[in-house]
Amino acid sequence: MNKYYFILVFFLLTACISAHPWKPSHYVIIDTDGGIDDMRAISMFLASPDVRVLAIVASSGALSAENSYLKVRSLLNSFYHEGIPVGINRRGNFKSPELKTALNTKWGNESGITPQKAKDALELISWVFSAEKTKITFVSLGGLTTARAALNEIPSFSQQVKEIVWSADGLSDTKGFNYSIDKKAADDILKGSIPVRIIKPAGDKKFYDKALVESISKINNVYAGKISELFSAGAADGHEFVLASTDETVPLFLHYPALFSTVSSGRNSESQAGDIHPLKEKTMIILKRETVERNQVVEEFPDDPSFYHEDIKDYVGEIISKHGIDEWTSGILANELHRHLGVFAIIGVKMGIRAREYFDTGVDEFMATSFAGSTPPISCFNDGLQVSTGATPGHGLLKVINDGLTRPVAEFVYMNRKIRLTLKPDIAEKVTAELKEINFIHGLDSDIYWELVRKNSIKYWLSLDRHEIFEIEEIE
Fold first, then answer.
1. Which pLDDT score is estimated for 9?
2. 40 three-state secondary structure
3. Backbone φ and ψ of 104, nearest 5°
4. Could you give the dihedral angle defined by the CA atoms of residues 210, 215, 218 and 223, in that order, rounded to the nearest 10 degrees?
5. Cβ atoms of 259 and 276 closer than 8 Å
6. Dihedral of the alpha carbons of 45, 354, 385, 29, in degrees to the nearest 10
7. pLDDT at 165 over 90
8. Which of 26, 35, 57, 56 has its CA nearest to residue 257?
């Protein structure tokens, strides 16, 4: 009896140890038809740390599949999420009306984006299934053509997809736009084996009132900024639909299902929010990226300058405003771990966050290999890297190469893809030369040396933009 007891205890402990404290609640593939509401819904999905967007499919609906692809790819690039793959569904007979407002709305810079080179939707979905074994929510913001094709042509689709969440007008609807895109696909999916959750619009054409738009504009991140930009550009002028909450109810439902009334019919269901005021509050929470607790010990890091040392307090607001709260908190932790303010530790922080942005991952979600070695000052880079990514030696996710060629370079592996980030040579040479000069003049044992290193670190923390200082290449 005791033997079985200890086996059970060992199993439970192992399960707890291997559990992922940062694992998001929702792994999603999004199928979009390029509507304005799709842009806001996708921005909300990407903003939430409790969601991992594995891929996006561009389909025909409000826009053609090709124009939808242009919108989505440009949006992701504007968020620096170049690593989120986008495919095109070239199937179906629906001829898009190319809605003027949707077509003219800017999601990002479309120059240099070629839809003809985009991966086929089903090929992309199959690749996602090969790289990620977590059960997936398939989100349809337009028609169900892609879902039906995937169900029919990808054998693992019915096992890998736990539910289809569809933005539509109800289970019995036969006139709504998203249903009309592909009626046969909708009927087949609703009769299929995968549960379908239909999320109906919020039903209030004034969801985005002046107060909500102003509140969103005060949030300091790219996701809220994109939605705010939509309204400031005048896209909503004269268009009541733009002020309504339609596809945005899907991310709201996934995060806060208790705010919706749900009616089931067999394995399928339809849900609609009764009161839009809580939805507005939750929209703000999602866009503020507050859907999960981000820290393990402290509730939040102070942004009050008086909390910090005299030489840095004047820069607190400017660093947060320019580089975001993630870089600020990671920088604080890295330098406390490092026991002094160091420029290469700061560069490691910036690189780690840039790699996370590329794939849009949370902490502790990919393998990292550093080529900075174990010799200071360049090896100080490793401390910043592990704090900003969560790829620590203790988690078995950080490997440091000691080949005698120390350099601020790291490789990151996520979903069977590998990227390499390299600090641009001119910046690396400038920083290294400055440190050598300070060392030559004052020596490592001098207080002046460490004061000047600290001063330089603050300067570079503020001035170096992580989106401009690294060369990025996808190598696998």
1. 38
2. helix
3. -85, -10
4. -100
5. no
6. 30
7. yes
8. 26
List strand residue ranges (DSSP E) for 396-469, in order: 398-400, 409-414, 417-423
Residue 293 structure tokens:
């607790």
pLDDT band with cut points at 50, 70 and 90 for residue 12: very low
**Domain 18-287 of CATH type 3.30.70.20:** no
Provide the pLDDT for residue 193.
Answer: 95
Is the pLDDT at 318 greater than 80, yes or no? yes
Please tell me the distance from the alpha carbon of residue 272 to that of residue 283, in angstroms, as a whole number: 16
Q: Are 22 and 90 in contact, with CB atoms under 8 Å apart?
A: no
Q: Residue with structure tokens 């404290």?
A: 21
Q: Contact 193/158 with Cβ under 8 angstroms?
A: yes
- Domain ranges in the chain are 18-287, 305-474
Topology at the third CATH level for domain 305-474? 60s Ribosomal Protein L30; Chain: A; (3.30.1330)
Which residue from 400, 443, 407 is spatially nearest to 425, judged by alpha carbons? 407
User: Once rounded to an integer, what is the mean pLDDT over residues 92-99?
Assistant: 93
Beta-carbon neighbour count of residue 236 at 10 Å?
A: 17
Backbone torsions φ then ψ of 32, nearest 5 degrees: -125, 155
- Give pLDDT tens digits for 342-357: 999 999 999 999 999 9
